[in-house]
Structure formats: structure tokens, C-alpha cells
Amino acid sequence: MYKRYACLALAACLFVLSGCAPRDCRMVEALDGGQFVAMSRAMRPVMLKKTIVDKNGDWYSSMFPSRPSDAGKTLVNRLSPAFRFPDARMPVPSTFRAMLTPDAKIRYEDNKAVIEQGMNRVLLELVAVTDWNNDGVDDWLVLCRSGYSDTPKRFREYYLVIIDLKTPVLKPYVLMVLDHVYGRVSVRNDASGGELKESNVMEFLQGQSTMTQAPDGRSVRQKLEEGSSLKQTSLSH
To answer: From the DSSP assignment, how many helices (H) and strands (E) are in the chain?
Structure first.
């Protein structure tokens, strides 16, 4: 009986405390805080519009988050790589797993996977979980970084969102494509606010734009509001 009352009291407390969140803000579970900041800065207009972050770059997450398990394996086994080959004339393998050769090596770290196949190197990472399209269901913000093992300072990044996690093959939407060449970043495509479309390349040096390298862990400030079931996180300076 006492256990039942305790459970009811906890549920009521959480219900009341959920009202402490800023109005209309969307919850974010950032599995990689630094990379999420890089994404939110690069796509600042849409992140603000969707109230995923506020004007200070802060976001809110539940104190009792539900983190996906084995996200790295899920991305390798189920994510479609077709977004990397938009002009392919031949059929593209259905998943990253289907692209692997016998000599391929994969390293998993819960929310990420690193694939090395010959000189090719691909990183797949679940960066954050949030309700991107505001339909009441969690979506995945994913980073795909592709390059070559002998030129680690040259690589391409794809910012992706997966809004349907129930299909056998995960088909992402491309939000932004970035080329990194020895510290210079080229925004190849910015479709974060709508449909993917060709755009002129915009070049800038790291530190000369609002899109900068994510700060290290020492600059992370996590502030817990007294009596709140929410956690506010900020990586902004």
C-alpha cells in the first residue's frame, strides 16, 4: 500500500514539475553535447524557430532521459547511405552494413560507430534525440562524417534527421552538408529550413562565423533549477 502511494506521489510530482519548462520549448537529449552545439550553431535559424535551443544556445532535457541503446549498431545495420550518392546511376546498397566488404573494420561506442574500409573512413553518430517535426514522437539528429584515413583534416559532414524509426531501413532527411578542408569549412547545402536544394558554396574560416568548433568539456555548464524535473544545459560562451 505504501509503495503504491509513493509511486502515485512521484508521478504527481513529476507532472507538476514538468510545468517548470520554458513555454513551448522542446526537450532535447544530447548524447554528444559538443557536437550538438556545432549543429545548433550551424543551423541556428531553424533551431531557434523550432525552439530546440533558446537565444543563448541553451536547451532543456528531462532529468530522467530515455537514451537509445546500441544506436551505433542501429545506424550501421539500418541507415540508408543513399544520401551520400544523390547522383548515383547504379543502385546503392540498402544500408551501410550492406556496403561493407569482408576486410571492413567497425568500432562501436554506444551512440556511434566508426567504419574503416581500405582508406575510407566513415563515422556515424546519434548526436541528439528531440521532436524535430513536433508530432509528439522522438526523432534522431545524426552526424555522418566521411573521409580518408590518410587525410584526417579533410572530410565531409552530413547533418541528418530521422523522423521514422520504425521502418526496417532508416531513410534520413539531409539538413546540411559541410566540407572541412584543413580548418576551412564550406557549406555545400543548407536544407535545414526546407527541402534540399542546390546552393552556392559559402566559405569561411573557423572562428570567423557563428559556426565554430564545439568547445571542450571544460566549458560545459549544467544548471539544475531547484525543484525542477528538467536539466538546462548550455555550451555557449
So the answer is: 5, 12
State how far the Cα of 97 lies from the Cα of 125, in Å rounded to an integer.
Answer: 15
Q: Tell me the per-residue pLDDT of 46-56, one tens digit each, with 9 for 90 and over.
A: 999 999 999 88
Q: Annotate 90-120 with DSSP letters as a single string.
A: SPPPSSHHHH--TT-EEEEETTEEEEEETTE
Rounded Cα gap, residues 187 and 52, in angstroms:
22
Residue 86 CA, chain-centre distance (Å), reads 21
Res. 64 pLDDT band, cuts 50 70 90: confident
Asked if residue 83 lies in contact with residue 160, where contact means CB atoms within 8 angstroms, the answer is yes
34-69 core/surface letters (b: 16 or more CB in 10 A; e: else): bbbbbbbbbbbebbeebebbbeebbbbbeeeeeebe
Amino acid symbol at 28: V
The C-alpha angle with vertex 226 and arms to 224 and 230, in degrees rounded to 5, equals: 50
Rg of the chain on CA atoms, in Å: 19
Segment holding 215, helix H or strand E: none
- Distance CA(127)–CA(92), nearest Å, equals 25
Q: Is the pTM of this model over 0.85?
A: no
150 SS3 class: coil
